[in-house]
Amino acid sequence: xxxxxxxxxxxxxxxxxxxxxxxxxxxxxxxxxxxxxxxxxxxxxxxxxxxxxxxxxxxxxxxxxxxxxxxxxxxxxxxxxxxxxxxxxxxxxxxxxxxxxxxxxxxxxxxxxxxxxxxxxxxxxxxxxxxxxxxxxxxxxxxxxxxxxxxxxxxxxxxxxxxxxxxxxxxxxxxxxxxxxxxxxxxxxxxxxxxxxxxxxxxxxxxxxxxxxxxxxxxxxxxxxxxxxxxxxxxxxxxxxxxxxxxxxxxxxxxxxxxxxxxxxxxxxxxxxxxxxxxxxxxxxxxxxxxxxxxxxxxxxxxxxxxxxxxxxxxxxxxxxxxxxxxxxx
Length: 330
Fold this sequence. Notes:
It is a single chain. The chain is an all-alpha fold. The chain has a domain of 212 residues. It is 72% helix and 0% strand. It is built from 13 helices and no strands. The radius of gyration is 20 Å and the shape is globular. The C terminus is likely disordered.
């Protein structure tokens, strides 16, 4: 499948999920979710986003340094805010990541390193999120608890395989494209993610990000009128947040609402309640990323000159230059 067809398939998938929800539940849950957003919940989400964004930027900076594409935290934070805003405002949910990857790669004179740093940063966060989700879903009642032992084995096997790949030194595996890819991935894992100076910070940052997103979802549930206990709500939040990472969405909307409707319905809380909670969460997240719009505006007023490969990467600053068509990110 070509890249263009895949992009349209992802967008149509998200649209189809939303269309089915409207068909089955009507527009009421969506409108109710929008009406229930209040100032306190928006302020709470914005405050939590300061912490989660700083942690994501720290994780990105650690990995980029390990890959030889140094990125200071003071530059990573505004760039990550911009990335989150673009992800929340544009179709697909990844265009912001593509933009920051391309800008960083150009700034350090190595587009490949910039793209790989972002891809590994996103992947590292998702691995930690999945591991935490498995723990929560194993310990607390949820619609998928009966399947979790098998899922835990599969996830554990995958993480072990990645760890072994990162510790390996595959030098004599040939010169084919696949062999070079394996060597590059092993080197990136070993130097960018599993190095002693990097992995503790990456894990800590990722855990704090997951906790922050879960707290935001729980606040959204309360704002949407849910009275379920935290113990009952946390597994549902974990499932919905996993769905939010599926790239088949329209600016974040689609799979998140679909899984929320299913999970809340199976848990006895009502599919409409799940959709309303997801809508509140989506609005909260969008508002929390608005500082990224400010970054875009300021950058458009103070454009930097084109980056050159000889520039010191420590002086890199994010700009609003559009990324080229056809780029792909994590």
